[in-house]
Amino acid sequence: MADLPKYSYSYKALNSLVGKAIHRYGMIEAGDRIAVGVSGGQDSLMLLWSLGERRKRVPVEYDLFPIYVDPGFDGGFGEALASTCREFGFPLTVDRTDHGIVAHSASNRENPCFLCSRLRRKRLFEIADRLGCTKLALGHNKDDVIETFFLNVCYAGEISTMVPRQELFDGRFTVIRPLAMVDEKAIRRLAGTLAFPLFNNPCPSAGTTKRSEIKAMLERLYRSNRKIKGNIYRAMSHVKMEYLLK
Ligand SMILES: Nc1ncnc2c1ncn2[C@@H]1O[C@H](COP(=O)(O)OP(=O)(O)OP(=O)(O)O)[C@@H](O)[C@H]1O
């Protein structure tokens, strides 16, 4: 991995948005044991790396436990991902499953992505619990939050999105999304500067989802006016209930 100039602008900008999200939503407290879902994608690698860097610099002590739920396709990259996490200073828990295969088999009548992510989420909670963690950090970024909003409007007929901090199971577990305020492009740029490895996603459904269609639509919209993205993001916390339908 490449060394980062200590006061790199792109690192400072990302760290500042991560700090803002952590403070605004009260994501991390002293003594937290935080499981980190690592998929091999650039977002979750950035999540692990940036929380690791932050940990060295802030007075709040917390521990990070990266977990990879391997969906079981041929050409998996569990070992290589474990070696990257080791470079970041953390041992990776790899859980080899057949979720991807089952989700794409004829026996599954659900959408493969839906089933796969439900099974994965369950495993992540189980492993996090086994590791004594009460928080699970996921690598969703600002673009994911916006896309989910549009996916929920268009395909679920509701106004909602994924929230930066969410308590589950009567508050016994908390999901946090420290990259929720960071643009995907900023993550890609910094990941490039740091020369993060690229892991090829062997899933046959990768890049063919409804999310990719919404992403393409939003990209067109963003190109037409540079204020649109910020406005959409702001709109999600600026809701005029009296101007919605009853
Ligand atoms: N196989 C997995 N094992 C562990 N965590 C995962 C896995 N897949 C996804 N996650 C977690 O869920 C988050 C969202 O998943 P999603 O599939 O949208 O991400 P991705 O595009 O595959 O990868 P990334 O967000 O890491 O770039 C990831 O950022 C990561 O924290």
UniProtKB/TrEMBL annotation:
InterPro entries: Rossmann-like_a/b/a_fold, TilS/TtcA_N, tRNA_thiolation_TtcA_Ctu1
Cell division in keyword set: no
Highest taxon above the source species: Bacteria
One Pfam short name: ATP_bind_3
GO terms classed as biological process: tRNA processing
Assigned keywords, A-Z: ATP-binding, Hydrolase, Nucleotide-binding, Transferase
PANTHER family, alphabetized: AMINOTRAN_5 DOMAIN-CONTAINING PROTEIN, SULFURTRANSFERASE-RELATED
Protein name: Adenine nucleotide alpha hydrolase
Organism: Desulfosarcina alkanivorans
